[in-house]
Structure formats: C-alpha cells, structure tokens
Write a structure and sequence with these properties.
Helix content: 55-70%
Shape: elongated
Distance between the termini: 75 Å
Number of domains: 2
Number of helices: 6
CATH architecture of the largest domain: Orthogonal Bundle
Strand content: 5-15%
Structural class: mainly alpha
Largest sheet: 3 strands, antiparallel
Length: 154
C-alpha cells in the first residue's frame, strides 16, 4: 500500500493507558484489554465491592474512579494482599491522605505483609538449598557405578 494512502487512513485509537481524564468513561472490554484481565475478573471485583460502575441500560460504564480502583486492586494482588486488605486500602485511597488512623492502619497492613514475605523468602532459600543438595547427590550417584541401561563388563 502506498504511504500516502496509509497516512490518510486514521489509525485505531490506542488503549486509554495513562491518558484518561476524570470525565472519561470506559467499557468493561476496554478495561479488560488495558489491564490484561478478563471481563469476568472485573465483574468479580465489582461483586466484592471494589468497583461500582454506573449502568447505561444493561451495559456497565466505568469511570476514572473505577479505573483507578482496578489499577490499585491489581497492584495489591501482585503484592500478595488479600481482597479484603485491598478493599480497605483502596477505600483509604479515596479519603483524605492526612487521616492519621487510616495511615496507621495502612502501615500495619504493610508491616504484616512484609513479615509474611520475609518468611516466604526464608522458606524459599531453605528449599533451594535442599534442592541443591539433592542435585549434588544425584550427580554423585550418576557418576559412580553403572548407569541404567548399560551393563558392566565382566
């Protein structure tokens, strides 16, 4: 195709990634594509109260607020937080940032999660050490004696 024809044709609109405005709305398909989740996952988050889209007939209409809450929810999941912890934190996001009790609660959740991750890291290090020992033992056994499928010379 000649370049003059290609440039005359409008390109498809990119996903809203990072270019949303407070008045902008999104469909469930747009959010699912942008955040690489299924529409079913988004409906699940709606069911547990993390998202509250408006309705236009039977269609869900997601606002800038819903998009931000979805982004925070997915970030919390990547950190390993439970949905209840995520909901508490996301709800705090919408309140004044200088509320001391909320910040204290947030720090407590983070501290508990840090302890859990540090314990998991310690457990992983122990398990990796055990795997290393088993691998060394297997290499030693494979290096001595006849190998399976071969016969010793008499």
């Amino acid at each position: 195709m000649p370049s003059s024809l290609r440039s005359a044709r409008p390109s498809p609109a990119p996903a809203a990634k990072g270019r949303d405005t407070p008045g902008q709305t999104f469909s469930i398909a747009e959010l699912a594509a942008e955040f690489d989740v299924t529409p079913r996952a988004i409906r699940f988050y709606e069911g547990v109260g993390l998202l509250a889209p408006a309705r236009a007939g039977r269609q869900r209409v997601y606002t800038h607020r819903d998009r931000t809450r979805l982004k925070l929810t997915l970030r919390g999941k990547r950190l390993g937080l439970s949905l209840l912890e995520i909901k508490e934190l996301v709800d705090m996001y919408e309140s004044p940032a200088d509320t001391a009790p909320q910040l204290t609660a947030f720090m407590a959740v983070l501290a508990a999660h840090r302890r859990q991750l540090e314990q998991q890291r310690e457990d992983i290090e122990i398990t990796l050490g055990e795997i290393e020992q088993h691998e060394a033992r297997c290499r030693l056994l494979l290096g001595k004696g006849p190998r399976r499928g071969t016969k010793r010379a008499a």
